[in-house]
Design brief:
A hairpin with a 2-residue loop joins strand 2 and strand 3. It contains one helix and 40 strands.
Length: about 475
């Protein structure tokens, strides 16, 4: 189940506070003394969104189930959630639920060759499948796609997944404890209203689609990829690995409980209204595993309305390299919260290729550093405008903890920095000195106190100090 709350009191789509909900469910196979036994599952909502995978009884396999062991929701999940919301004093909040389609009485089809789907069927893939160039495969609404351990579907032609809100397409392992690999797209893949879980078998992904995680992404693509209203939850690996010269568009995509949201290596990517949370899980302990919300290396990337919550590394990591020099990155109207390291980390190899980064109307909170410009060439320029940084250790950092030259520029304007431990740190480890000409802050609100640099070195006279 994917749960979203929409608070009509607060201005904006995302609620401000985190809270947990109890989902009560019962099972037909656990009837005792004439009553069905209940079982509760806790779901944590971050910024109003969360997910939980409900497993009936002790099953390790997905549906179809017999009529005697199917899970049944107690009193209706809507009623349980409404009561929980009332308890948290948000009576005007509405709840949106997305439930996986289970079809326990439908027939099972084995996909081991050319496939033409039947509505509301269960399709099992037991071995790797390739869709040849020129072929078009359509998976219709209501289909449950079961993939066996390590299976990968290679798309050299076209794959179209046609889920709907009323009948989404469910993609999951044949056995819940045995992850499949995912999809490899050379050609074209289109998908809408997909609910997927359980990918991430340790298997090589497509070349030049990222290397920061060893598990296979749900989708590894160097082709054309379009996803909308797609939900990825509880994956053993990353959500996406997008590669050189590929083009991807994601709209209204939800990603939760993954090892990494994804990587984009010299690709063209558009993210609009995307939520990425709980990376890799909700525990407070740090693990050094490149658990970024999204990692952008080179390419041309546009981000609008992105929410990243609880990342064990950076909410957004950005770089360039000799294989993917330069590029454009624009981030706007976004919320980044609970980033263990940087909200947005900017760096690049010292290759004289222009890289332009623009960050507009974005809120970053609870990060070690909201925005950091690290090792970069002089052709790397970043602009931050109309942003709000609060409750971070450092709001603006010029320099990083690597012993490498930092030569890029950072301009901050019309930005508010409140309740941070330090609003600005300008210190380059490579030289052990600040770089006053590379950092400019104007028309912004920040504290008079700062560290590792003198105020006159990096601000104009039109700032407001608190």
């Amino acid at each position: 189940f994917i749960v979203e709350t929409h608070d009509t009191i607060v201005d904006g789509t995302w609620v401000k506070e985190d809270f947990s909900l109890q989902i009560q469910r019962r099972f037909l196979e656990t009837k005792v003394a004439g009553e069905y036994q209940g079982r509760s599952t806790t779901i944590m909502l971050r910024r109003g969104v969360g997910s939980v995978w409900v497993v009936p009884g002790n099953h390790t396999s997905p549906p179809p189930y017999s009529d005697t062991d199917r899970p049944v929701l107690s009193m209706g999940i809507e009623g349980v959630l409404s009561a929980s919301l009332d308890r948290f004093k948000t009576p005007t909040a509405s709840v949106t639920l997305t439930k996986p389609p289970f079809h326990p009485t439908d027939r099972t089809v084995i996909w081991d060759g050319p496939y033409h789907g039947t509505l509301n069927s269960v399709v099992m893939v037991t071995n790797d499948i390739t869709i040849p160039s020129g072929d078009i495969v359509t998976i219709p609404q209501g289909t449950t796609l079961l993939l066996s351990k390590s299976v990968v579907i290679v798309v050299k032609g076209t794959l179209i997944i046609e889920g709907t809100e009323e009948a989404p397409v469910l993609i999951m392992p044949n056995r819940l404890t045995e992850p499949y690999s995912g999809f490899q797209v050379h050609g074209e893949m289109q998908g809408s209203w997909i609910i997927a879980t359980g990918s991430g078998f340790v298997k090589p992904r497509l070349k030049n689609t990222g290397k920061h995680r060893k598990e296979h992404p749900f989708i590894s693509s160097v082709g054309e990829l379009f996803l909308q209203n797609t939900h990825l939850m509880e994956l053993h690996g990353p959500g996406f690995g997008l590669g050189k010269q590929g083009s991807s568009v994601f709209e209204k995509v939800f990603v939760s409980g993954v090892q990494q949201g994804g990587e984009c290596v010299f690709c063209t990517l558009s993210l609009k209204e995307v939520y990425i949370g709980s990376i890799p899980n909700e525990t407070p302990y740090f693990v050094d595993g490149d658990n970024d919300g999204f990692y952008f290396r080179g390419g041309e990337v546009g981000v609008k309305g992105l929410v990243v919550v609880d990342a064990k590394d950076d909410c957004i990591d950005s770089a360039s390299s000799k294989e993917s020099p330069g590029g454009l990155l624009r981030i706007e109207d976004s919320i980044l919260d609970g980033c263990h390291h940087e909200g947005i980390a900017l760096s690049g190899s010292h290759i004289p290729s222009p890289r332009v980064v623009t960050i507009v109307n974005t809120n970053i909170s609870h990060a070690q550093q909201a925005v950091e410009v690290g090792y970069t060439p002089s052709t790397h320029t970043a602009t931050v405008a109309h942003c709000h940084f609060t409750k971070n250790i450092v709001a603006i950092r010029y320099g990083d903890n690597y012993n490498l030259a930092v030569l890029g520029t950072l301009r901050v304007t019309d930005t508010t920095m409140l309740h941070n431990m330090f609003d600005v740190v300008n210190l380059v480890k490579h030289s052990s000195t600040p770089s006053p000409r590379s950092l400019n802050i104007s028309r912004s609100v920040l504290r008079d106190e700062n560290t590792f640099c003198g105020r006159a070195q990096w601000v104009g006279s039109d700032n407001v100090f608190t």
